[in-house]
Write a structure and sequence with these properties.
Layout (H helix, E strand, L loop, with lengths): L1 E5 L2 E5 L6 E7 L2 E6 H22 L8 E8 L4 E9 L2 E9 L7 E5 L4 H16 L6
Antiparallel strand pairs: 1-2, 2-3, 3-4, 5-6, 6-7, 7-8
Helix pairs in contact: 1-2
């Protein structure tokens, strides 16, 4: 199992552990994701972060923004929110799977969201390929 962690966040993955091969955690909470859910989390967080970067140049230091995205997981959905301004941002998500499956909600406040995003980006190529290092 490969584990990356910092103050207020943790990301771990193990290919042999199916169907829940990715562990994500924040301060006081943790949950496991299937590969498709982890891929959706990375994709959605990346899109929100790119939008934030594009808009942050026009924000005043005291201004903030709130960006949301909902992704279809068929079955279920993943909702993400990036909230903050030029000095820092938080990331929140709600996983709503099909009926009868587990659900998960979590958040990473500033400053934990920034290094978590870097860790997700680092793992994106192996997750996109459909396999995890382990």
């Amino acid at each position: 199992m490969q584990v990356q962690e910092g103050k207020g966040w943790r990301l771990a993955h193990q290919a042999a552990r199916q169907p829940f091969c990715v562990l994500i955690a924040g301060e006081g909470w943790a949950g496991e994701l299937q590969l498709a859910e982890a891929q959706a989390l990375i994709s959605g967080a990346r899109r929100l972060h790119q939008q934030r970067e594009a808009l942050s140049a026009v924000l005043m230091p005291e201004e903030s923004l709130c960006l949301e995205i909902e992704l279809d997981l068929a079955p279920g959905s993943l909702w993400l929110e990036l909230d903050g301004g030029p000095r820092g941002w938080s990331l929140r998500f709600v996983l709503t799977p099909a009926d009868g499956s587990r659900a998960l909600e979590g958040a990473w406040p500033a400053p934990a969201a920034t290094p978590l995003m870097a860790a997700l980006e680092q793992q994106a190529p192996s997750l996109a390929a459909g396999s995890l290092q382990g």
